Structure formats: structure tokens, C-alpha cells
């Protein structure tokens, strides 16, 4: 598959999707949205893919929507931005969140607008020390999208979510870590290697079980305590029927390293 605005490869169970419009800080134009969608379809349909790694090329991770595509000419009719959200951003966020495999986001530089919220739909966010997060929407009269208004209060609390989204100030990677927005900060020069190492290691783990862990944690945000206990029972039932459960226990008992297949 060849793409113009993304780099996409699959190796050792890891699909790597790299946003590749570095001159525009990897902001999303229509073609990039379409290409990301195509790549994610491959990830969804290829059973050999056990981890997705999302990152960006150049000094930015993603500056959100390409605003040159959204400039409204004087006197022109008001645009329906809801259509763009419905067509591209919401499906992207749903897909990242619902993929039944771990999704790692390596934030290599500035992440602004939708680009600051896409990482929050991923499972493990590692940022380069020089990276930053900007809820830039308020600067152009918009509201945070890509599920930012859902994720931010849950991750950092309402007070910080309001400050981030109403002020649109730059949040450093270190501060994002301290606030619980992301998992880890590493030196810029180590980001790519560490993200790939983590992805490769995760790709050898019981993928089906990891997908169920994701599902149960997501559900916990809306479930009551009792509902969650019942969900744990149901998902543990599914996990216990997997090949990898058999292998994990057998390897433990036989004191050897397990060879997980991912199902
Ligand atoms: C850009 C962009 C960009 C185009 C940098 N577009 N070129 C959903 C649905 C429908 C409509 C609207 O939006 C959405 C969701 C959203 O994402 S809304 C929010 C959109 N994003 C922003 O408002 C962020 C805009 N960018 C910035 O504020 C700055 O570029 C940041 C703070 C990210 C980085 O600042 P600097 O490091 O100073 O870089 P720069 O501003 O010089 O940008 C470098 C180049 O990238 C520059 O092009 P040039 O030709 O002058 O070198 C920028 O024009 C271009 N670029 N973001 N979103």
C-alpha cells in the first residue's frame, strides 16, 4: 500500500502508523484522514497485528485540522463543522479506542487541537521531553473535539480540564505526566526506540486478554460497582477460554517462558 501523507508498515506484529506532513506539523487534511482510515482498516482486519503504534514525522506530532482547508471566505455561508467531525474525527477516535489490541501513541512534538486529543484515545502515551499539548480550539472560537471534553475531566479533573480548554495554554510533556494525562516522558532521542521496544514486547503478550483488559477499564467509567463485577465475571469467562490462558498457566507450572499466540 502506498500513501502520500502517512507512513504505514507492519513488522513483528506491530503496525506503525506515522503521520507524515511534517511541513504542516502533520495537521489533518482530507487525504490524510482517508489514508489513516485505510491503514486502520488493515489493522482491524489483519489478525497478525497485535499492537498499533501511532506517531508523527518531524518536529510536530499533529496540529489538528489543517486550517487552510477550513478558511471561510468573506461573505460565504457558515460551514457545517459537525459534518467534518461526523465524517472523520469521531470515527477515528472510536476506532482507536475500540481496537481490541494495545494502541501506543508516541508524541514526538507539539500536539494541538484534535492532535492533542487523539493521543488520549490511545492506551499508552509516551511523549518526547520537548513535546507539548495545546487545546488550541478556544483560540479560534471552537470547542475541543475528538473526545477531549470526555477524556480531559476524567484524566486531569474538572479544574485543570477547564483551565486547559478555556486558556489554550501550552502544557509541557513533564506537566502532562505530572497531571496524569500521559504514561511516560523520555528524552527526544530515545522516543522512537523506546516506543518500538515497548510495542514489540507487547506484541508477544496475550493480545486477546489485553483487549479484554482495555474493554473492562473503558466500561468501568460508566458502570456501577455491581455492573463492573458482573462484567469482570463475563470477560474473565472469555479470557479463560483463550489459548493464551492455557499457555500462560502451562508455562508458569513448567517454569518456562510462555509462547503466546495472541488468541
Ligand atoms: C498548520 C497548522 C494547521 C495548517 C501549523 N493547519 N497549517 C475539527 C473539525 C473541523 C474544523 C476545525 O477543527 C477541527 C479540529 C481541530 O483540530 S481545531 C484546531 C486546529 N489546530 C490549531 O488551531 C493549531 C494551529 N497551529 C498552531 O497553533 C501552531 O502551529 C502550533 C502551536 C501547533 C505550533 O506553533 P509553531 O511551533 O510556532 O509552528 P508554526 O505555527 O510556525 O507552524 C509551522 C507550520 O505549520 C506553519 O506553516 P508555514 O508555511 O508558515 O511554515 C503553519 O502554518 C503550519 N501549521 N498548524 N492546524
Automatic annotation (TrEMBL):
It comes from the Bacteria. The keyword Lyase applies. GO terms for biological process: fatty acid beta-oxidation; phenylacetate catabolic process. GO terms for molecular function: isomerase activity; lyase activity. Its EC number is 5.3.3.18. It holds the Pfam family ECH_1. The keyword Isomerase applies. It is an enzyme of class 5 (isomerase). Signal peptide: none annotated. Keywords: Isomerase, Lyase. NCBIfam families: PaaB1. PANTHER family: 1,2-EPOXYPHENYLACETYL-COA ISOMERASE, ENOYL-COA HYDRATASE-RELATED. Belongs to the enoyl-CoA hydratase/isomerase family. This is 2-(1,2-epoxy-1,2-dihydrophenyl)acetyl-CoA isomerase. It comes from Pseudomonas bharatica CSV86.
Amino acid at each position: 500500500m502506498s500513501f502520500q501523507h502517512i507512513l504505514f508498515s507492519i513488522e513483528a506484529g506491530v503496525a506503525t502508523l506515522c503521520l507524515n506532513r511534517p511541513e504542516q506539523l502533520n495537521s489533518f487534511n482530507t487525504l490524510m484522514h482517508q489514508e489513516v482510515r485505510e491503514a486502520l482498516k488493515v489493522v482491524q482486519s489483519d489478525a497478525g497485528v497485535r499492537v498499533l503504534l501511532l506517531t508523527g514525522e518531524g518536529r510536530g506530532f499533529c496540529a489538528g485540522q489543517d486550517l487552510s482547508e477550513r478558511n471561510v471566505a468573506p461573505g460565504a455561508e457558515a460551514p457545517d463543522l459537525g459534518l467534518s467531525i461526523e465524517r472523520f474525527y469521531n470515527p477515528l477516535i472510536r476506532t482507536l479506542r475500540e481496537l481490541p489490541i494495545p494502541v501506543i501513541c508516541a508524541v514526538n512534538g507539539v500536539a494541538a487541537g484534535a492532535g492533542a486529543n487523539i493521543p488520549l484515545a490511545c492506551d499508552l502515551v509516551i511523549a518526547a521531553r520537548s513535546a507539548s499539548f495545546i487545546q488550541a480550539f478556544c483560540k479560534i472560537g471552537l470547542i475541543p473535539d475528538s473526545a477531549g471534553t470526555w477524556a480531559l475531566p476524567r484524566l486531569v479533573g474538572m479544574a485543570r480540564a477547564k483551565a486547559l480548554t478555556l486558556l489554550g495554554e501550552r502544557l509541557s510533556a513533564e506537566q502532562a505526566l505530572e497531571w496524569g494525562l500521559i504514561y511516560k516522558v523520555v528524552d527526544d532521542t530515545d522516543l522512537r526506540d523506546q516506543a518500538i521496544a515497548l510495542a514489540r514486547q507487547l506484541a508477544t503478550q496475550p493480545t486477546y486478554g489485553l483487549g479484554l483488559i482495555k474493554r473492562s477499564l473503558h466500561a468501568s467509567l460508566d458502570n456501577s460497582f455491581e455492573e463492573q463485577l458482573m462484567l469482570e465475571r463475563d470477560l474473565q469467562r472469555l479470557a479463560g477460554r483463550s489459548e493464551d490462558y492455557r499457555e500462560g498457566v502451562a508455562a508458569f507450572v513448567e517454569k518456562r517462558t510462555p509462547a503466546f499466540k495472541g488468541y
